[in-house]
Structures are given as C-alpha cells and as structure tokens.
Amino acid sequence: MTILTINFNGIDNQAYMQIIERFDQAIDELHNQDRLNQQQLSKNLNTSLCPISLEKVAEEYKVKFVPLLPHFQLVQHGPILFTTVAQVIAQYIVEEWESRVIAELLNRRCKHTNLDTKRIEKYCHNLLNNDPWEPLGKKFSDEDRLRRRNKIVDELVEFLEEQSELQLAGYMSFRMHSYKKELKEVIEYAIDEYILDQQYEEFMTLLKYFVQLQETRTELVHLVQQEGSSFIVCDHQMQPLEHKHEHDRIVAEMLETEINIEDIVISSLISASPQKIIVHTKHEDYQVVRSVKSIFGDRAQICKTCPMCRTKHNELLPFQ
C-alpha cells in the first residue's frame, strides 16, 4: 500500500537525487522526534508523528511514501506527511528552480517584444535575492522568500489531500498559481526598471554627445557634496557658480522630463561646460556622481586630497 507517489519524469537526475535526499532528511527528523517523544513521555506509549517509510524507484524516477501499518492513521498522520512533502518541494523550487520559473514566465510575457529577457532576468534575480543592487536590492528579504515558499506549500498541500500521485513537472507547469502571480508582479516591476534604465542610458548618450559638441567655457569647477546627498557647483575659487547661460532652462527641462535626477547640478555643469570637474564626495556611488562621470568622462575626477575629502568623518565638512 502506498499513500503517496511522486513522479519525477521530466526532472533532471541531479534534481531528483537532491530532492530524494531532502525527503530522507525530513522523514528522519520526524522519526527522531518520535523517539525523543517516546523517551520523554513513556516507553510504552505507542504514538508517532508520522509512521511512514520512503521507497525509491530510481529506474522510474519515482518515490513512494509507504505507511507503517497499523500505526499510520490517515486522519492523524496525513496532514503531517503532506505538509512535510510540500515544504521540501517548495523549498527546493524557491532555492533551485525559481530562476527557471521566472525565465519561462518572462519568455511568455516578452514573446512578441524586443525586450532583452536575459537582462530583465538579472533585474528579477536582484529583486528576489536581496542582492546589494541600488535601488532594487533592498525591496525583498528573507521573509519575502519564506512567503513565496509558503504560497507553494499551501496550494500543494491542498492538492496532496485530494490526489495520491504527483507529477512534479506537470504540477510546476500548470499549478502554483499564487506563487506565479507574485513572480509575475516582480517581472512587471523589473521590466519597468529595465525600460527606465534604457531611457536613462539613451539620454546619457545624448547628453554626452551634446557635451562633446560644446566649446569649453570654464577651466575648472568643483562639485561639492553638502549635507546628505545634496551637491553644489562652485567655481575655481570655491564660490557658488552663478547661472548666466540662456540655455540653462532648456537643459534643465530636458533633464526633468527625460530622467528625474539631480537636474540643477547636471544643468549647471553642462551650461558651464568646464574643462575639468573636481568632485568632492565621500560616496562615489551617488546617482548624480555616476551621471557626471558618465556624461563628462575623464573631465570629471574624484578628489581625495583636499581637507574636505581627507576628513575621517562619515560626512564631508560643510561647505563654508
């Protein structure tokens, strides 16, 4: 008699062996807990969390869960078994197969578009794995991964309560609706960020071309970080730069409508058209600093020698 059979046809052998190993560990943990309970309560107490054995049928890519009769009672032990099986499978999907699920969903979503799916997959990866990637890396956490796992668990337990056989590959293709819904939301968010970055890169290219065509108006300007992440543009004497060029407004409007970054700073620098920009900041990864380096190239240099930039404090010395 078999209470549950899982068919791994369509699943690669390595994954099959890894999941079987996790099943073994999960069942062993239940049995170990049984023995501990027996010792703590009564040696004569004939109870068990889950009297079940695991039978592997490697040539058929199957695993069978066989009840240990007469101790196994479906009403009592079935929920424990189904939850344990679902947790093992769900954990493996989130840890090992999530990128495959995303790739399949993304290919369907972008089938008739020119979007770079490989690049969007990287956006999704950073979102879902909490990588230190600004600005997306902080959005999701371990709790989010646990929630996604539990969505698979809840749906799979319901399935196992009604069915005695699970075709895992088919189940992954046609079920896991709530889990896939969340992944689709992540994909849409990643696509939006990808498009924004594409627009940003295109506009950076336009600005670089615009700067290259300009004649140099100023030998040197300083870009100085103030409190927080604000910056001020100064002349060679470290005095705030005055705006005198008529096309300042045009450049600022272009920046504001195309990409929402430090409009005034970029506009001021482009209008001044300096031969050299010295950037005084403790954080080279600020968006405005990256933009200045991207637009002006070698003309922008990070200062590491002046008193402001040599300070050991977390913040730059305030501009005097």
Brief overview, please?
The protein is α/β, with parallel strands linked by helices and about 325 residues long.
Structure notes:
By secondary structure, the protein is an alpha/beta fold. It folds into 2 domains: 4-116 and 141-179, no CATH class; 214-310. Helix content is 56%, strand content 13%. The chain has 10 helices and 8 strands. It has a 4-stranded mixed sheet with strand order 2-3-1-4. A 4-stranded mixed sheet has the order 6-5-7-8, with helices on one face. A hairpin with a 4-residue loop joins strand 2 (52-57) and strand 3 (62-67). Helix 2 crosses helix 4 (142-162) and helix 7 (248-258) crosses helix 8. The longest helix is centred in the middle third of the chain and has 37 residues, at 177-213. The radius of gyration is 30 Å and the shape is elongated. Residues 257-261 and 312-320 have low confidence and may be disordered.
Question: What's the arrangement of strands in the largest beta sheet?
Answer: 2-3-1-4
Query: How many beta-strand runs?
Result: 8
Low-confidence stretches: 257-261, 312-320
Instruction: State the domain count.
Output: 2
Largest sheet: 4 strands, mixed
Please tally the helical runs, counting DSSP H or I stretches of 4 or more residues: 10
Mean pLDDT, nearest integer? Answer: 86
How are helices and strands ordered from N to C? EHEEHHHEHHEEHHEHEH
Q: What distance separates the N and C termini?
A: 84 Å
SS-based class: alpha/beta
Strand content: 5-15%
- The best one-word shape is elongated
**CA radius of gyration:** 30 Å
Helix content: 55-70%
